[in-house]
Each structure stands twice: as structure tokens, then as C-alpha cells.
Design a protein that fits this description.
This protein is an alpha/beta fold. The protein has 14 helices and 19 strands.
Length: 499
């Protein structure tokens, strides 16, 4: 959804809707008092009559319609803001958007909280717009008939603030973040007949226009690198695999090792292979490339806002299909690291892809830290539901920093164990390891334990995002569908700890 955003000190245009934001004091600022006087006390009368309470999220819509200069006024209370943070501000914007009629084409927002609160109003204003933009996302690309009835009419947001230039400064990097989030949501929403390993690699190549160095390995190159684990997953599909590496040198010091390398699982469709999944819900497996989608969207956000940090990334892209050429349960493959793997379950394919992607990332970039993301296990959904992603790590500092970034952004994680006591769980009688745990318990941990074998003793974290990549219902910051969980989290992690 395309919306123009303007930060101004005074509104001069007609508008369909004016949004008045008040804190728990319900005290009106100068601009809001001006509107109230012009419309004969419409706002103050509503406050004094107790039609609006002081709790967060309470709202009241008033019909103004004076010469059609303002048609409606929406009063929105943000409650107490003494514990204000970026996530809360984003969610204010998302909540406001959910109250707006589809017929509204333009609106003006007045952000004038009580002066006693020591917050930067321009930052709050920028965050509110950011939240609105995140919540406004739609994916109606394939609704070819009556398309207009699905879309919102809103195309312009005007924000009244004391210092418009400062507000623009706060909003500029958020706009780049939005573009990264939108890209990820678009990618996970695409059907698998459109988004194949080849076309997903082509989407990553588009980041070159932002200054990202992108290299794509095709089938012959992947074979030369002996990526047997990844190739084993790809064997059953008519769509060839790809391995994509991305580099953003924001410090201009090309000799400096990347602070982090992000690695993403990119299974563009997962049937389970020979260990085929039940048909019910299998259509959702178009978003089994969610980890790679987050990594590509994150790189777009970092490059878009010119992040002053060196970052690298690798995504392994395959399709997992059953066919006469597909690998079988019981097959043994050899990863590029030299580890042999007994494939017990062909539906535990993401970790096989990551085995070679992680090895390639470490050998190519020699990063200081590595973070992988994958829609890896159903077990993590059983453990944590759709509220949090699973976090596994061999390094407490790295894990704590990711956790704190999650709390700050609202994209929350929870650390789960991956200690030595789980080593025996993936031991194989005939190979170095097998690709699933020995029993039904600790399935998310056995997946993480498998990936850990290829990490080579650098600080590493694994985010199992299986439960948070796709939402069945609307949230304050996204509609039902792709969430792009991880883009905002890791953008904040990079910003707070390396810039």
C-alpha cells in the first residue's frame, strides 16, 4: 500500500479525518485547542462528558463536517507514556490504522502529549506513522477481479509536529525498515509456482541497486563445493537449487570481518519429500523459505538506511519434492564440511540446507558471529506457540543481546537449551550423525543441535521462527499472513550493538 507521508508544522489542506492523540491526562495541546474552538468545543465536550476514558486504546469518533474542511475527528488515548518505548509507539500507530475506514483517503494526525512527559515528540510522531505503515500492508496481487473493494483508499498522512525536519530525520531509517519488512512479507506470501529457488535468488540480486554485493551459486558451482546435504534435499525437484551470498560494507573498510553473518533457510516449498506431509495445510509450506525471506529483507533495510556496519549473509534455496530422483529415508549424504549424515526423515530438510549454508558462510566470510533463521520445527510451536521464536545459542552475550532486542521491538524470543546433554540425540549408528532426534522429545533442540555441528566454535545463535513467520489473524502491526518476524528484531540488534 503506497502512502505519502508529510511532516508539517501547520495543516493547510482539507482532510477526511483528523486524528487527535491524547495521553492519560486528556489535556489538549495548542493545535488541538485551536480545532476544538473552531468546531465549537466538539473535542472538549466529549472529554468532559466522560465519553472517552483514560485507558490506552480508548477512542471516540466525532462527526465534524464543517464545510467539509474536516469530515471526522478521531480522538485516540495512548494512556500512560512514562514507560514509552519504540514498540509501544509503533503499536499506537498500528492500532489507529485499524480504526480507520477504508474510504478515508487522507488524514492529519496531531501528536501533542502533555509537556511534563520527557519524550521526544518528533520521535513519537515518526513511530506512530511507522506503525501505521506496518499495519497497512496488504497482499492482493492475485485478486484480479473487484480489486478496488479490497484496498484502502488512504494515500496521504499528514503529521503536525513542532519540528518537521527533526521528525523526518527520525522517520527516514524507519522508512527503509518498512521497505525491508514489506519485501519479506511479499516473498513469504508468493505462491511456490512463482517463487522458486531461481526467482528468489533473482529477488536477492535486486539489492545490488542499494550497494549490496550479491553472488549467486548455481547447480554446477554448488556441486563443485560438494554441498551434499543441500543437494540431497534438492534432488527430487525440477527446480534447481541456488546459494546466494550478500555483503553490505557500511564502514567502507572492506578488509574488516563482518560483525555478523546471517544465514537463512530457503525451502520455497516443502512437501516433506518422500516422508511426505499430510495434505491438510500443506499449502502453507510456501512460506518455509521464511528464514531466507527475513535475511533478504533485513539486508534491504540495512542497505536502505546506510547502516554503518559490515554485515554478510547467505541463503540456501531449494525445493523439497518427492519424485523418482528424491532422496530416501536411510540415505547417507556428505556435507561440504566433511560430516556424513544419515537422513532418517526427508521432512527434516531445513537443517540439511543450513548445514552447507552455514559452512559456506563461515568459510567465505569468517564472520565474528553467526545467526541463522529457519522455519525449522513444529516442536518449537508446541513449546512457545505463535508468541515467541525459539532462541538457541552457544554464547550467553549473543543470546542476551538478541533477547533484549526482541523485548525492545516486540518480536520476542525465548532461549531454549542446546547443551552437551543433547549430543547423543543425533548420533547415528552408521554415519557421523542423523538428521532428527532419537525420540519425540526436544525436537526443536535436536534441530538446533544438528546445526551447531557445523558452526566451528564461533559465537552462534539459531532462531527457530516456525511459529511466528505466518499469522492466522490480525495483529497491531500486521494483517493475517506474513509477519516478517525477525527483520525489525535484527535491525535493532545491529543498530544497538554494532553502530
Amino acid at each position: 500500500m503506497s502512502m505519502k507521508v508529510a511532516f508539517v508544522s501547520k495543516s493547510v489542506t482539507k482532510k477526511d479525518l483528523v486524528v487527535v492523540i491524547l495521553d492519560e491526562s486528556l489535556e489538549m495541546g495548542p493545535n488541538i485547542i485551536g480545532i476544538d474552538k473552531e468546531y465549537k468545543g466538539i473535542i472538549s465536550d466529549s472529554i468532559n462528558s466522560n465519553k472517552l476514558n483514560k485507558t490506552k486504546g480508548s477512542s471516540l469518533t466525532l462527526i465534524a463536517n464543517k464545510d467539509k474542511k474536516i469530515q471526522e475527528i478521531l480522538i485516540y488515548c495512548i494512556g500512560e507514556i512514562k514507560n514509552y518505548n519504540s514498540d509501544k509507539a509503533d503499536r499506537i500507530g498500528g492500532s489507529i490504522f485499524s480504526l480507520i475506514s477504508k474510504s478515508i483517503s487522507n488524514l492529519t494526525i496531531y501528536v501533542e502529549p502533555n509537556k511534563k512527559h520527557k519524550i521526544i515528540i518528533e520521535d513519537l510522531a515518526a513511530r506512530i506513522v511507522h506503525g501505521m505503515k506496518l499495519r497497512s500492508y496488504t497482499f492482493f496481487k492475485y485478486k484480479l477481479k473487484n480489486k478496488s473493494k479490497h484496498n484502502f483508499a488512504l494515500n496521504q498522512i499528514e503529521i503536525i509536529t513542532k519540528d518537521p525536519s527533526l521528525a523526518k530525520k527520525y522517520y527516514s531509517p524507519l522508512q527503509s525498515l518498512e521497505e525491508g519488512v514489506y519485501l519479506t512479507r511479499n516473498l513469504v506470501s508468493e505462491p511456490a509456482n512463482i517463487l522458486t529457488p531461481k526467482t528468489l535468488a533473482e529477488e536477492a540480486e535486486k539489492l545490488k541497486s542499494l550497494g549490496v554485493k550479491v553472488e549467486v551459486l548455481k547447480l554446477a558451482q554448488i556441486k563443485r563445493l560438494k554441498m551434499g546435504a543441500l543437494l540431497g534435499v534438492a534432488m527430487g525437484s525440477a527446480n534447481e537449487p541456488r546459494v546466494v551470498s550478500m555483503t553490505w560494507n557500511g564502514t567502507k573498510n572492506t578488509k574488516s570481518k563482518p560483525e555478523v553473518c546471517f544465514v537463512g533457510k530457503g525451502v520455497t516449498f516443502d512437501t516433506g519429500g518422500i516422508s511426505i506431509k499430510p495434505s491438510g495445510g500443506m499449502q502453507d509450506m510456501k512460506w518455509d523459505m521464511g528464514g531466507s525471506g527475513v535475511v533478504i529483507g533485513l539486508m534491504k533495510a540495512l542497505a536502505g538506511r546506510k547502516a554503518k556496519v559490515n554485515i554478510s549473509a547467505v541463503v540456501g534455496l531449494v525445493e523439497n519434492m518427492p519424485s523418482g530422483k528424491a532422496q530416501r529415508p536411510g540415505d547417507v549424504v556428505v556435507a561440504s564440511s566433511g560430516h556424513s549424515i544419515e537422513v532418517i526423515n526427508t521432512d527434516a530438510e531445513g537443517r540439511l540446507v543450513l548445514a552447507d549454508a552455514v559452512t559456506y558462510a563461515i568459510n567465505k566470510f569468517k564472520p565474528k558471529r553467526l545467526i541463522d533463521l529457519a522455519t525449522l520445527t513444529g516442536a518449537v510451536i508446541v513449546s512457545l506457540g505463535p508468541q515467541r521464536a525459539g532462541l538457541f545459542s552457544n554464547n550467553d552475550e549473543l543470546a542476551n543481546n538478541i533477547f533484549n532486542s526482541g523485548e525492545k521491538t516486540g518480536e520476542k524470543v525465548w532461549r531454549l537449551p542446546v547443551g552437551e546433554e543433547y549430543d547423543d540425540d543425533i548420533k547415528s549408528a552408521i554415519a557421523d550423525m542423523h538428521n532428527v532426534g532419537s525420540g519425540r522429545g526436544a525436537g526443536a533442540t535436536s534441530g538446533a543441535k544438528f546445526i551447531e555441528q557445523f558452526v566451528q566454535n564461533i559465537p552462534w545463535a539459531h532462531l527457530d521462527i516456525a511459529g511466528v513467520t505466518w499469522a492466522k489473524s490480525n495483529s497491531e502491526l500486521y494483517p493475517a499472513g506474513g509477519t516478517a518476524f525477525g527483520v525489525r528484531l535484527l535491525n535493532t540488534y545491529v543498530k544497538d550493538f554494532f553502530e
